[in-house]
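Minutes, project huddle
Topic: does the predicted pose make sense with 4-O-methyl-beta-D-glucopyranuronic acid bound?
PN asked that the exact inputs be recorded in the minutes so nobody has to dig through chat later. Recorded below.
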Amino acid sequence: MPAMVALAAALACRASAEDGYRLWLRYDRITDRALRTGYAEGVQKVILETPTGADSPAVSAARAELTAGMRGLLGSEVSVVLEKSAGQVAGAGAEGYSLARRGDSAVAIAANSDAGALHGAFALLRHLQTHRPIGGLAVTSAPRIQRRILDHWDNLNGTVERGYAGNSLWEWFVLPDYKTPRYRDYARACASIGLNGSVLTNVNADTLALTPAYLEKAAAIAGELRPYGIRTYLSARFSAPIELGGLRTDDPLDPAVMAWWRAKADEIYRYIPDFGGFLVKANSEGQPGPQDFGRTHADGANMLADALAPHGGIVMWRAFVYEVQPGVDRVKQAYREFTPLDGRFRPNVVVQIKNGPLDFQPREPFHPLFGAMPRTPLALELQITQEYLGASIQLAYLGPLFQEALRSDTRTRGPGSTVARIVDGSLDGHSLSVIAGVANTGKDRNWTGHPLAAANWYAFGRLAWDHTLDSGDIAEEWTRMTFSSDPDVVAALGAMLRTSRETVVNYSMPLGLHHIMATDHHYGPGPWAAAGRPDWTPAYYHRADEKGLGADRTATGTNALEEYSPEVARAWGDTSSCPEELLLWFHHVPWDYRMRSGRILWDELCLRYQRGVDGVRQLQRDWDSLAGLVDGERFAHVQALLRRQERDAREWRDACLLYFQQFSKRPLPGGVEPPEHTLDYYEAVQLHYVPGTPSGK
Ligand code: GCW
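Predicted holo structure (tokens), as shared on screen:
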């Protein structure tokens, strides 16, 4: 081959090798020779100990992964053998595993199920990928939450609501005939971080998904996910009996409606024998539901639950409900609707609640329903896709947000009544437990758009498996697996990931501000925006006036605090003990209020916005320091996106400060850069065709 052609081929090969497709499952050769040799000697053989000791799709997936992984990481062949385990593996639960040395040259992965063995295989590979010692290898791990699910807001036409990584992964039109290899790779990625379920379709549901033709397609996807222990679920549109069945009603207490759903459930299980169940958005944002017939959420959920129960399916009934009700704060409504129903749901129903009472804002207090329905299993819904944190254009590592949500102490049953313990069922003794993350995946070659956004998928899975893990440690693990274990890379990228979410909070909605984004597409600032409904209008939330800023949710205001435990309400109800991060969520605070820094609110607000911009510049410096230490393709991509993020951050700062300055009538304090344009300029900014936007203008 002529030299130039060879060079071009080599470059092309290198470039495509680092396009992000392999995610954290890269298995590139470990360059540290001593380490590699040590691993190769210590892991010549892997023994999979399972209850049957027999082959199965999950076992062969584990074998394939170990073989490819070891070959890649170590350049050596590993022999994988099966053994029947002697008895229960203590501490491994149904899906967990234990890893231990067997003599000098083998490792045993013991599990109580084949899925557990697969999880163990991924754990062993992770162990090596992150360069941990294998000397005294002794790890036992089991998931704390039973169902760990990705919710895809994917539409049957291929678009993804709030999806920023291209079209849907599911190629409905060519299914069931063609099954892209991506389905397997998706399943591998999910299984490798401990996930075990996928809701394929958007909660703003299309009844077409429940027709035989589409069930056949869904069954084809289910078949690809199954070997990796990933169960398939679908969203269900409540009006399906009318739309598909030709019934005159969807009244959940109507025997014909019940019979229709029973027959539909039976049909689904004929296509997908291990179907997980339904996710339902009802009587929310225009979706049909039981209230259309004067029935309750419990009536609706129970009717579906009864249809699924004979097959072992569950209903995940969302609590994301709000209607314009004069005098009732939007953030109070779900609590008012759902708490009276506690104890009235079937055992195979979970009520699925977003982390905060509003809608996935950059920071929210925990949702007051957590702890308020002890007789009902409550699922936590987190948003992995960055609807309000810069889409897949801005870097926001969400591990800290997820951790903050999970560790929030509701105090409803004394100290330690954390959201995590409510969700995992341990606080109230529930056996059904669910955690869901709204996926950020799409057909982009690198799966998640921003080359660093896959860290959010990763962090969700790891925390869903074990909510006691630290999000900073998870960031480091992901960095090592996805980029490199070079200490400079680990330090710089680790710092970027750890700080990025707070940086986004600072330049967009600091100090508890919320819902001040642009209408509809939600990308960029819009505190002035005037949408139709009052509760879609930023002023409903920021309440800026000449006196001050923030929503009064104390007893003198909407009293949303009354929905929290007395301890929490007391602490948050007083500006002096309310965390400053939540101050403007709960209080209307005078512009000259003295903050803990000694500065007045206005000055502090300005400096927070500036800190956000400075934070992005720090991200840029950190990333630039990695030139030559990470591959050129991802380096250039992230560098370009950070440039855009810096511009976006300045726009947020300038637009919001100019807007709020109309009310505060105070100058910008020292240290805050003067705005580039006038307020009119920012108010006139119009973005078009922002990805992931339902109306798509
Ligand atoms: O966050 C809002 C989104 C909607 C979404 C809705 C929900 C799927 O803007 O796009 O609809 O929440 O969670 O149901």
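Observations noted during the meeting:
- Confidence is low (pLDDT under 50) at residues 1-16.
- Residues 235 and 279 are 4 Å apart (CA to CA).
No decisions taken; revisit at the next huddle.
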